[in-house]
Write a structure and sequence with these properties.
Order of helices and strands: HHHEHEHEHE
CATH superfamily of the domain at 70-178: OmpA-like domain
Strand content: 5-15%
Radius of gyration: 44 Å
Strand order of the largest sheet: 1-4-2-3
Number of helices: 6
CATH topology of the domain at 70-178: 60s Ribosomal Protein L30, Chain: A
Helix content: 40-55%
Distance between the termini: 115 Å
Shape: elongated
Length: 179
């Protein structure tokens, strides 16, 4: 019991000592910090100028324009240079594109398959290129903007000895030479 009494006395003494250590803390009302509005600086946006289709076209190289495939090739029957009915819509689209890009000059290349002599195929390739040019001119493309060249059988598109290969090589291609 003594121990309990000693512990009780020590506990009461401790409480009194804690009471005496208490300091009165004077508190002041919390002041709100002034509200500062964030003002964003408006920086003028420099917008890239919108380029016209013609300006975009003029920035491209001739290789880029030719690789876009705007002008499609046409094909011919064996030993013929007349424009086939199924090739006429292609020439119409080519003419429309050329008329929308009036500064363009092109060369029409005449090609043949590997059959026949070199001399014969050069002459046939020239007739094919001339037929394609004439068709374009009749659709309104200025003749001065269209030149022709024949490669005969010297520049085959594909190699082979079957009718599909021959067909692919009997063609006229349209290359842009000036924009």
């Amino acid at each position: 019991m003594r121990k309990l009494l000693v512990v009780l006395i020590i506990g009461v003494a401790f409480l009194f000592s804690m009471e005496s250590c208490k300091k009165e803390v004077k508190t002041e009302p919390v002041q709100k910090e002034p509200v500062v509005e964030k003002v964003e600086e408006v920086t003028p946006k420099v917008e890239k100028p919108v380029l016209t289709e013609e300006e975009i076209f003029q920035q491209k190289s001739l290789d880029e324009i030719n690789n876009e495939g705007n002008l499609k090739k046409i094909h011919f029957d064996f030993d013929k240079h007349n424009i086939k009915d199924d090739m006429k819509p292609i020439l119409h689209r080519n003419a429309d594109w050329l008329l929308n890009h009036q500064s363009v000059e092109i060369v029409v290349e005449g090609h043949c398959d590997e059959r026949g002599t070199e001399e014969y195929n050069i002459a046939l390739g020239e007739k094919r290129a001339e037929a394609a040019k004439t068709y374009l001119v009749n659709l309104g493309v200025p003749a001065a903007k269209v030149n022709i060249v024949s490669y005969g059988k010297s520049r085959p598109l594909v190699k082979g000895v079957d009718e599909d290969t021959y067909y692919q090589n009997r063609r006229s291609e349209f290359k842009i030479t000036k924009k």
